[in-house]
Design a protein that fits this description.
Elements lengths: L1 H8 L1 H43 L12 E2 L4 E2 L29 H18 L7 E11 L2 E11 L4 H15 L3 E6 L2 E6 L2 E9 L20 E10 L3 H8 L5 E5 L6 H10 L4 E7 L20 H12 L7 E6 L7 H14 L2 E4 L8 H8 L3 E3 L2 E2 L6 H18 L1 E6 L3 H13 L4 E3 L14 H5 L58
Parallel strand pairs: 4-7, 8-9, 8-15, 8-16, 9-10, 10-11, 11-12, 12-13, 14-15
Antiparallel strand pairs: 1-2, 3-4, 5-6, 6-7
């Protein structure tokens, strides 16, 4: 009691106790602050590592290229769910064999540089006229040699400066040379583009009407969309374009049966999109149900039989990948014999310029068609529209052409625009109708002029002619359940009646 009284009466003891208490509280507060700071630093470090580990996204002004691994273009806002295309394919399949360094890849990057240059100087595709397109070959690659007329609305020097900058960025192996108003672009010593620069018209007269259709049958262009089988919505939108489109469907895709039924309802032709071994295998896997050069004859026939069982309405088969398999004469002979026995034709996607499909098909008596233009190696609407115009040029020159695209939203958007503005001298037709030749004069033979009215330049013959074999299909056996080639005729679906999707019997 006395001790307690002494403590209360001693001010030094009271101050000492109070100081120790304050010091204890200060230590506790400092510890808590340190803990909070550490947690904040840890969270910041985690966020930074997440950002650094993510793949870089291109700027909006950078080229937007198709990503083979995902089946969708790279770049902000490039995929559209409303067009039925997911950002990532369900099984991350490759839509096509990855591009390799060479004239074909360089030529398409030059195309991209030209398009981006036009955008940068405030112009669009209406400034470009296609004078001539030719298919040339270099090793296993084929590429399009192009002569284009470009109307310049602004300064020539600015156009050249921007074009040089884009070539350095997109196609560093390309060289640009000038000869007055003509530019020549070469890659690996091969000329890919000849550009004729033109001054704008001196008057404000409205543009001339489109050229009238040539006398006789029109040039014919068949559109094929490969790699269908996942998005039913995309396929439905495709069927409503108002033109015939061949549906090339993966046999093992998630919705292959539903999309095949949709195509049948819409009177669209169906192809088996048959996976085949690429030269880059096993790095690039063609997928389930593929054919390889190591297979014997019985195994190849079994694969075709199993895959065709999914599509009894198929009129033909085309290759998915296949740059190695289509060069193999033994394997392709088995394929052609099997197709002939079933009354089907073969569309060669020409993933290799050394494909033996045409020669082997001719020997076997199997009808064969060949791809002329890939539409969407660059998944950009303007780039695809330019490819469609090149396909028109090929059709006008040879009487017919085949263009192959893929299920990108940009491809659907470009096709919608093309349907409304396509050359009236070119008719969109079913693929199988190209097996039956239609006699007609070509644009050059009739007028000596191009689509734009300019006189065609005298050019050397291509290294290898772009022929279109015209082999009449043989009558299928009576027991064959596949639809005969060319039937039924294309009838566009009614806009007022939705397409009903029913399972195959």
């Amino acid at each position: 009691m006395a001790g307690g009284q002494d403590d209360r009466e001693n001010p030094d003891l009271r101050e000492s106790s109070s100081g120790e208490a304050r010091q204890g509280r200060t230590v506790r507060i400092s510890f808590r602050l340190a803990a909070l700071i550490c947690l904040g630093l840890l969270a910041g470090l985690t966020w930074a590592l997440t950002i650094l580990s993510a793949p870089p996204r291109p700027l909006a002004s950078e080229p937007v290229l198709a990503s083979p691994a995902s089946g969708s273009p790279l770049g902000p806002g490039s995929a559209s769910e409303s067009d039925g295309m997911a950002v990532r394919d369900v099984q991350a399949r490759l839509y096509e064999e990855p591009a390799r360094d060479g004239p074909a890849e360089a030529a398409r990057m030059v195309d991209l540089a030209i398009l981006e240059t036009l955008k940068a100087v405030g112009q669009d595709l209406s400034s470009v006229s296609i004078l001539e397109v030719r298919t040339l070959y270099s090793g296993r690659e084929s590429y399009l040699q192009q002569t284009l007329a470009i109307r310049l609305d602004g300064e020539r020097a600015r156009f050249l400066g921007v074009l040089n900058a884009w070539l350095a960025k997109a196609a560093p192996d390309a060289t640009l040379s000038e000869d007055h108003d003509r530019l020549s672009i070469e890659v690996y010593g091969q000329q890919t583009h000849s550009l004729l620069l033109q001054a704008p018209p001196t008057t404000d007269l409205p543009p001339p009407p489109p050229p009238p259709a040539l006398p006789g049958a029109k040039a014919r262009l068949a559109i094929v969309i490969d790699d269908l089988g996942e998005s039913v919505e995309f396929a439905s939108n495709l069927s409503r374009l108002g033109i015939p489109v061949a549906f090339a469907i993966w046999p093992s895709a998630s919705n292959s049966q539903r999309i095949a039924a949709l195509a049948r309802k819409a009177n669209m032709e169906v192809l088996l999109h048959q996976p085949m071994e690429p030269r880059s295998y096993p790095e690039d896997d063609p997928g389930k149900g593929a054919m390889f050069i190591s297979m014997n004859e019985a195994a190849i026939r079994a694969v075709i039989m199993e895959n065709l069982a999914h599509f009894p309405m198929a009129v033909g088969l085309n290759n998915h990948m296949g740059s190695r398999f289509t060069e193999d004469r033994r394997g392709m002979s088995v394929v052609m014999d099997e197709l002939r026995s079933r009354g089907l034709f073969y569309l060669d996607s020409m993933t290799s310029a050394k494909s033996v499909g045409t020669s082997v098909g001719k020997k076997a008596g199997t009808p064969v068609l060949r791809r002329d233009v890939f539409l969407d190696n660059v998944a950009d609407v303007d780039a695809i529209l330019l490819q469609l115009r090149k396909a028109e040029n090929v059709a006008l020159k040879h009487g017919q052409a085949v263009a192959i695209g893929h299920p990108y939203p940009e491809t659907l958007q470009a096709l919608r625009a093309w349907v409304a503005q396509r050359d009236t001298r070119v008719e969109a037709v079913t693929l199988s109708s190209l097996l039956h030749p239609a006699a007609r004069p070509t644009a050059a033979a009739t007028t000596g002029k191009s689509r734009s009215g300019a006189k065609l330049p005298q050019a050397k013959q291509p290294l290898s002619p772009n022929t279109h074999p015209q082999v009449q299909p043989k009558t299928p056996p009576a027991q064959q359940s596949h639809t005969p080639i060319g039937e039924p005729p294309y009838l566009p679906p009614s806009e007022s009646q939705p397409i009903e999707i029913t399972p195959l019997p």
